[in-house]
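Field notebook, page 260. I keep forgetting to write these up properly, so this time I am using the form the group agreed on. The chain and the ligand, S-adenosylmethionine, are recorded exactly as supplied. Prediction of the bound pose follows.
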Amino acid sequence: MLAVRGLSPRHKLGQNFLHDHNILGKLVDAAEVSSGDVVLEIGPGTGTLTETLVERGCEVIACELDTGLADLIEERLGSRVRLVRGDCMSKRTLNPEVLSAIDGRQFKLVANLPYQVASPLMVELFTHCKNCEGQFVTIQYEVAQRLLAKVDSEDWGVLSILVQRLADVELITKAPPTCFWPQPKVVSACVALFPNKNKSDIDDDEFATFVASLFAKRRKQIGTILGRRTILPEDISPDARPSTFTIEQLERLFKQVCSC
Ligand code: SAM
């Protein structure tokens, strides 16, 4: 499909096309989509996943940055998808044309995500799109490990905290490089993210900034980072390091420090 159009995969746009129908089926099955569901796909590429979603009766809103691939999608699927041309993110928020196509309806994200936008997009959807019912995505396995990380482990960091506060994360399957064309250098994984309906009502953006600032000094003691005079929650020792804190501890710390 690419060759007849004089196109070739563009690494900088994360163009590794998923051709393994077994993995693709697992991703779509995990999303439990059915006829009439609104599905957002970021980066439809050559349209393999898009076509599967359309065949299951979904109303697909697809956003593609690459002009050549957007033309290909239009030729291949025409009016069967609502195609938005351009970057899915606009200054760290979801492209307004995509938001307008969703039109306030409940939707699921089902996508083989371009690696450059995967993390900001996943966080953004659960922070500012209250109508996102779930995310079912293929991402780099290394990123999946951070999403699934346990507190105080090597992978535990800002992304783990922000996402796990907003969502329950499950591994669907690992996807080796042979599932893609061209083959990426790294292993990928399909993960499911379900929004956490009981998340605390602190300001998501301020909390994200606070956690990022602490983790910039993750090996330092919290007493040194915040100043020894700062009054900490009872269960946090001034000698403890941010990398050992649970989400609940970080939220308590945020409330205490930021309400002073
Ligand atoms: N969905 C196809 C598949 O599964 O084979 C292609 C997935 S490929 C990993 C990522 C796709 O996202 C490419 O089509 C790429 O052009 C597109 N893309 C990259 N950056 C994008 C962005 N910021 N906004 C929208 N699409 C983007």
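OBSERVATIONS:
- The chain has ten helices and eleven strands.
- Residues 213 and 225 are 9 Å apart (CA to CA).
FOLLOW-UP: compare against the apo run.
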